[in-house]
Amino acid sequence: MPLDAASGVYYEVQGQGQPLLIGLPLMASFTQLFGSELQPILDGYLDRLTDRYRVLRVDYPSIGGSRDIAPDALTADRVCADLLSVASAAGFDRFAYWGYSWGAAVGLQLAARTDRLTALVLGGWPPLGAPYKGILQATRLKQPNPEPSSLKVLRSKEQYRQWETWYASMLDWPEAESVASIGCPKMLYFGGDGDLVEAGIPIRIASIIRERRIELEAQGWQVSEIEGQGHGVCMVPELVVPTVRDFLDRVLP
Q: With contact defined as beta carbons under 8 Å apart, do 53 and 4 qualify?
């Protein structure tokens, strides 16, 4: 079993070529967690990538084959250290990172903390003006009764508290300064209808990205809006992967 002894993260690597770490929702145990009916989604990513990219998928955090992390330990520092550790265990020195939603928020932290990224792809999360406070409030409200979709992946209701730890650790993060410092090629995509309401709290994602688009593009971001799609656009590989693949093929040698 490919388990990084340092971080306790289970991982799988498929394909050949440029190293590419893909975060949620493409975890290593995707089929075991979601069932064979969603296998076409996983195949839709891998079939379009593995001819030129060595794709690293991880069970993180505390899902699938990975070891448990205490909910109160899932800070931004811990997450970045774990993912850099498992990347090293997989033989990835420098690598591209692709994350969606929470995984995109993680990508911002990685890009601001390490020079190991060759490219950064974010989906469904605004690099500037992100709604950290709102989603932290929603997470606290949902803690007594997390939605079934979360419990399908998590091991217990108590584990849901890890998201509170994560977002609380983000409140003092110097977002504007950190994002401006990201020097690798960077892309952002989102569903045009991707605003959310969580526990009655509006979580503006698509709207914020549109409002900050000119500013982001001035900083070198390639921004792509996928019209007619909501926050679940990550589960439609035929729409998402070709756009991201074009970007990666262009910026990576």
A: no
